Amino acid sequence: MTYCLSINAERGLVFCSDSRTNAGMDNIGSYSKMHTFVWPGDRVFVLLSAGNLATTQAVIKKLHRDVEQAMLPNLLSVTSMGEAADYVGMVSTQIQRQQASRDTANTNFEATFIFGGQLGPTPPETFMIYPQGNYIHESSEHPFLQIGETKYGKPILDRIVKRNIDLERAARVALVSMNSTIRSNVTVGPPVELLIYQRDSLIEGRRLYLTDDDPFARELSECWNKGLVMALENLPRFPWETDPVKDL
């Protein structure tokens, strides 16, 4: 399984992904699910992937090859974020058809992507690209997208993430969302990759690679656990806990 998320804030974008892939508990591996395509000063694209590993790797390879061979369209030729998302969706469906045509075991070759970035002076955007090639934006009320194992990390995003959230705070929320998912699902695991893109910078930004024993990742997890325990202790007491007479 996989967990990836993006946050589209006023000051920029945050992307976060785990690295675990597996075909059973005795066959666990790690592959990066965060891929960047950067032309400094012109455009920055980030792609997070979930689903069939053969499909996602083939998609990434073709995106690079189309640029290198000047095939049209490509990520360097598109003129808008929407056009770029259309192109990625087209490549994904094409790869899935190719994979399925060679398969005799009814393998599921579907892949889902989060695609985001900024092209020139236009505002940064993020999209969730479905296996069928179509896509959606994040909502204005909840400016984040998730793919993969989403349920464990969603509550913190629902409560905290708003469009005006500070960019570094959004990044910490993303890591807490990831930490909660890793704690609850063994098929999601480190290393965790985090990318913080500042609006209008048109460079890749800050990228962190956090292993299980990374001091910052460990401190963040411990602080979050202690905070949850403290919050539980500070919840209102039942009436009979504060006034024993009412329990009679």
Spell out the blueprint of helices and strands.
Blueprint: E1 3-9, E2 12-17, E3 20-22, E4 28-30, E5 34-39, E6 43-51, H1 53-68, H2 81-101, E7 111-119, E8 125-129, E9 135-137, E10 144-148, H3 154-160, H4 167-184, E11 192-198, E12 206-210, H5 215-233, H6 239-242
Antiparallel strand pairs: 1-2, 1-10, 2-11, 3-4, 5-6, 6-7, 7-8, 8-9, 11-12
Counting copies of identical and different chains, the oligomeric state is: single chain
Mean pLDDT: 91
> And the CATH topology?
Glutamine Phosphoribosylpyrophosphate, subunit 1, domain 1
CATH architecture, by name, is: 4-Layer Sandwich
Rounded to an integer, what's the Rg over CA atoms? 20 Å
What coarse outline follows from CA principal-axis ratios?
globular
Total E-strand runs: 12
In whole angstroms, how far apart are the ends? 52 Å
Strand content: 25-35%
Q: Can you count the helices? A: 6
Class from secondary-structure proportions: alpha+beta
Order of helices and strands: EEEEEEHHEEEEHHEEHH
Walk across the major sheet and give the strand order.
Answer: 10-1-2-11-12
- Considering DSSP H and I runs of 4 or more, what fraction of the residues is helical? 25-40%
Largest sheet: 5 strands, antiparallel
- Count of individual domains: 1
Identify the CATH class.
Alpha Beta
CATH superfamily: Aminohydrolase, N-terminal nucleophile (Ntn) domain
Low-confidence stretches: none
